[in-house]
Amino acid sequence: MYLKNNTIINTKKKILKTSHLSKEGHIASSFSVLNILNVLVKYFLFKNRKYLNNFILSKGHASLGFYAILNQEKYISDNKFYKFASFKSQLGGHPKRNESIFTTASTGSLGHGLPILTGMAFASKNLHKKNKKFFVLMGDQECNEGTIWESLLLCSHYKLNNITIIIDRNFSRESDLSLGDLAGKLSTFSKNIFKVDGHDEKKLLYLFNKKNKSQTPKIIIANTIKGFGSKIIEGDNSWHHKYPKNKLELEQLAKTIKY
Amino acid sequence: MREVFPKFIEDYLIKDKKIFVLLGDIGVHSFRNVFNNFEKNILNIGILEQTMVGFSAGLAIEGKIPFVHTIAPFIVNRAYEQIKVDLCYQNLNVNLVSVGASLDYAALGSTHHCPEDVAILSKLPNIKIYCPGNAVEFYNLLKNYSLPGPKYFRITGSSHKLKLNIKNNAAILKKGKKGTIVVVGNALRFIDEYYQELDANIIYLNCVKPINQQVLIDNFNENLIIIQDFYIGSITSEIINIYKNKKLKIFEIGLPNKFFLNYGSAQQHYTYLQLDKKIIKKKILKVLRN
Question: ipTM of this predicted complex?
């Protein structure tokens, strides 16, 4: 049982509205990672409201969720947020690199975020001798991509314990190509793997904060429900890339949001 | 030409510590001095080209100026999407330096050939493509390393013998009346011994993207010959666009669009493909006569 969080419920309603207005957005994937993004944006990606340039949303199709949290925390205005994916908008259906809107890397094609973040973390730790933490959020099926495993090889070889890899484990395509014991597969690359309920913000915060005493990246397998919060979207995979067609559908969906 | 690359890196690392070299397990021995003297500025990252390009983007975001080096097909073909998304779309300053060019690894077969590199890379926005014709030019072109955006340097095993007065990546070798010959990089070796006998404007280019448009416009002749050491057609559309509505007769000399299934030496391939100085001269003279 989850605690009712009115702020997140409101943010999800805004996601629905923006998706309706723009006729775009991956709602279910955004709901899946919203609690993770909420914790990251609130506690790890900004200092004195300045973006630390330390995060890549590698599952770029959840961009609407990222922008929604940035909007919720007043980094992005309503005006900008509601123009999501419109012709002149900086906020797209997949993010485009622009540090002034808190976007470190252009993503969308899967398997690009971790290699880029590995290069950044390597430069920061091994070349600039900085003590900066880097975060990447990937989808579980993104782990199909070979570049993930290539990068993990580098992360462990170069002892990049300044990286936290968060895997959104929503099992959305598990039946088609099973990742099976994902933690087991990852365990040869990291001594620092945690499984957590990806909707439990307290536990997420604890794990993100937890000191990494190993010489390997921290990997957090966040078990999530795709479309979390709305029973209609949770149960229907057709919501992977679909927008509320009209006001009635928008209102009906908004009513279903419980978390 | 190849030995110029580590030399350049050694020379420039003395003053610019932002330089960072990534080797894809290729050329490691030739960079031994860099490994010995600048160990914090070089990595043999291994055989993971796609991630190597993504990694280089990350280094660039953190303020380094990466050089990424391996055999041409492994970077251009294997990591094409990473070049497109991570480097070109994000417009990051990363220098890609390939070796092997079209047929230098003749005996190793088509997996190691890359006659399509110029054609496919030139379709990506933001990238600059340099085709040095000899070691001196290569060293000079490498000085562009700190310019914004991604760059591709094409190291070839063969070179031309001329000392040219190159301005904005182009040189006018001579003026003439019967046609215009555009010759790129190391392909100048096909005509460097007799070019003065040809009654044509002869334009040399060692950068095909962006191309020096003004030189081509100033030296227009509707009888156009393009000479290249990569697939025929790689830069044709770019040149046609420059000449827009003008009537053109184009004759191309270069590699035909096929896999080169023999082994042996590069020279044997060029001979077999009739890319031989004497035969090329005959072909050019015939075109200039018409």
Answer: 0.96
